[in-house]
Amino acid sequence: MDRREPLTGSQWRKLLLSTEIVFASDVVGSGCDWSITTGLSDEETIKLLRVVQRKVARALRMS
To answer: Domain extents for the chain?
Structure first.
């Protein structure tokens, strides 16, 4: 794949799921250490994650 090509719907779903897991999981992600790992609070991250979730869902419905 040419790296300049946009992500497919399937790739967006995988990326979003991976981000959700890394944020929330202490087993396979950053979990409780998220704010230390990223410098973002859980509250900030949830707000950003919700924005991305809505945008991805909207884009996938339109495609």
So the answer is: 9-62
